[in-house]
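Chain A, query sequence.
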Amino acid sequence: MKNVIRNTIITCVFATALVSPASAAAVPAENGGSMLLTLFLGFFALIVVFQLVPACLLFVGILKGLFSKKHGVEQKSSNQ
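Chain A, predicted structure.
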């Protein structure tokens, strides 16, 4: 088992050493943005959208509560 783990680690180290110069020499895209920047902006947009959906639902619920007719409201009278 130790040999398998050792061989896996050595393989990962060599693969990383071979790939790192290729990733460092990457040419930026034609529009000036990189894939990492696009992924970051997409992730940020998803966070905003997933926060807006519950906020809009809550806002609609508040508006319904404010502008709906109040029926079934009982006022307590003090009969003592």
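The mean pLDDT is 77. Residues 35-67 form the longest helix (33 residues).
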